[in-house]
Design goal:
The complex is a heterodimer of chains A (235) and B (273). Chain A has 235 residues and is mainly α. Chain A contains nine helices and no strands.
């Protein structure tokens, strides 16, 4: 540990004097973009899938949709996100002749991936709401989708908020694999520090610290949101 | 008003309702009593198709609402329903609970009128006899009307000061009174009560029954599944005794309580009275 101060000095040199912090800022930005947009896409897809899966199934259309959704969830939960990234970026998109930047591909894949997980979280949340709520909505003449949207889903979201926060945290950490397809996230930024100074210890420790701080901030945010949503409960 | 024709409801092999046919007329107050498992709640829930009948017809104002091709939501707006467990919307305040359906229906009608006017405008370009436009109410107007109506209803049951609280802070009796008012906000033609007092503390039963009684005095058509025999006797104009999915007796309440005809009814009454 005697040369620890030397290592810190080297790190600082690249970080400050060689303007390495711009890479860190870009990396942080990309990590957040992928995680936040991914979660948003995931919530939209997840809600749609969950709604399909809880819809009564005596007609053909819901049955078919339900089959498609089951397949989707099975596919995305059954493969690692790295594999999905690689397959999408190096196989699917070239085959379809589409050329889009790696960052957009990452947002898309992480969105689709988290959609599969959020759908299961959401389904659990919807089933945790008293069935009487749905009945009451239907009894005053609201349709199934409207009752779902205005009554059941808001209550479900309140119940699943902690789990959804968990999903967001997982997503933030999983983004560290996006360098596989050439997107510049936090890992890429700090790896640059290491390869340019042949010193990996300090950059990786700082990277870990940044992830921890990010996750703690998210946890705090989720707790605050929960508190504001609890206003309809008995205080 | 509601005509039930050969109504059958089965869950798997279990036949809960077995070929029931009867007519409920305007202004009638029908009490349904019977032992538990007799199918009385299922019968009530079939009347607005909360449970889809296995076979048979429910004719409400000339339309068979048991038909899967009918848009049930439009007809349910004219059939109020009150549940044993109140089922107030937990994520809405009391006033929002009452306003939700009227505002939604109002906005739906508004969108329809706007679409219609667009079509008329197009048609007027080409035809000589110009058609008139439909009146389009503003969203704020719809909301204000619903709000006023909700406050009037809340005043009627003496709970206007609770307008802006969430249901979780209310007592069972208050919740049930608000649930009744929520149904009334849609101006239903008939009210269905599914054991409205069974989940209440004994001292709150009275306040809910009073609200129902007031409704009865206003001439509302209603169907009530209840275990309150005294209430059934006092308020109902007609009494159905169900057991094993059959209507065993369909008579005047006083007649039923004083001179039950069937043995099953005699046995039932000897236990509950």
């Amino acid at each position: 540990m005697g040369n620890f101060s030397v290592k810190v000095e080297k790190f600082w040199e690249i970080f400050y004097e060689y303007r390495g912090y711009t890479r860190v800022v870009t990396g942080l930005k990309n990590t957040l973009i992928i995680a936040v947009l991914g979660l948003l896409i995931g919530i939209v897809i997840g809600t749609l899938i969950a709604t399909v899966r809880v819809t009564p199934k005596y007609k053909t259309l819901p049955k078919v949709l339900n089959g498609i959704c089951s397949f989707y969830v099975g596919l995305f939960r059954g493969t690692p996100v790295v594999v999905q990234l690689l397959v999408t970026y190096y196989v699917m998109l070239p085959l379809m002749g589409i050329n889009i930047p790696p960052l957009n591909v990452c947002v898309l894949v992480f969105g689709l991936n988290s959609g599969a997980y959020v759908s299961e979280i959401m389904r659990g949340g919807i089933m945790s709401v008293d069935p009487g709520q749905l009945e009451a909505g239907r009894a005053v003449g609201l349709s199934f989708p409207v009752t779902m949207l205005k009554i059941v889903v808001p209550q479900a979201v309140k119940n699943i908020l902690p789990t959804l926060g968990n999903e967001f945290i997982t997503l933030i950490k999983e983004t560290s694999v996006v360098s596989f397809v050439g997107a510049a996230d936090l890992y890429v930024a700090f790896n640059y520090f290491g390869t340019n100074s042949y010193e990996f210890m300090v950059p990786y420790l700082v990277m870990a610290l940044i992830y921890i701080v990010l996750v703690m901030l998210i946890a705090l945010g989720v707790r605050l949101m929960e508190r504001s949503l609890r206003k309809s409960d008995r205080s | 008003m509601i005509e039930v024709k050969h109504l059958v409801k089965s869950y798997g092999k279990l036949r809960v309702l077995d070929d029931i046919s009867l007519t409920i007329n305007q202004g009638e107050r029908v009490a349904i009593i019977g032992p538990s498992g007799s199918g009385k709640s299922t019968f009530l829930r079939c009347l607005n198709c909360m449970e889809d009948p296995t076979s048979g017809e429910i004719i409400f104002k000339g339309v068979n609402i048991a038909d899967m091709h009918v848009d049930i939501n439009i007809h349910r707006r004219h059939i109020g329903m009150v549940f044993q467990q109140f089922n107030l919307f937990n994520n809405k305040t009391v006033i929002e609970n009452i306003m939700l359906a009227p505002v939604y229906v109002g906005n739906q009608a508004r969108r329809k009128a706007i679409r219609h006017n667009l079509y008329v405008r197009l048609a007027n370009i080409f035809s000589k006899n110009k058609k008139p436009f439909l009146k389009v109410e503003s969203k704020a107007d719809i909301k204000n009307t619903a709000k006023e109506n909700a406050h009037t209803l809340l005043k009627r049951i003496g709970l206007d000061e609770k307008a802006d609280v969430y249901p979780s802070t209310l007592s069972g009796g208050q919740k049930q009174r608000i649930a009744i008012v929520r149904s009334l906000a849609m101006n239903p033609d008939v009210m269905l009560f599914d054991e409205p007092t069974s989940a209440l503390d004994p001292e709150m039963v009275g306040e809910v029954l009073n609200v129902i009684k007031e409704l009865a005095d206003d001439g509302m058509t209603m169907v009530i599944v209840t275990h309150e025999m005294a209430f059934a006797r006092e308020v109902a104009t007609r009494l159905l005794f169900l057991d094993g999915g059959h209507v065993l007796e369909d008579t005047d309440p006083k007649e039923f309580f004083d001179h039950p005809k069937t043995d099953r009814a005699k046995e039932f009454l000897s236990k509950v009275l």
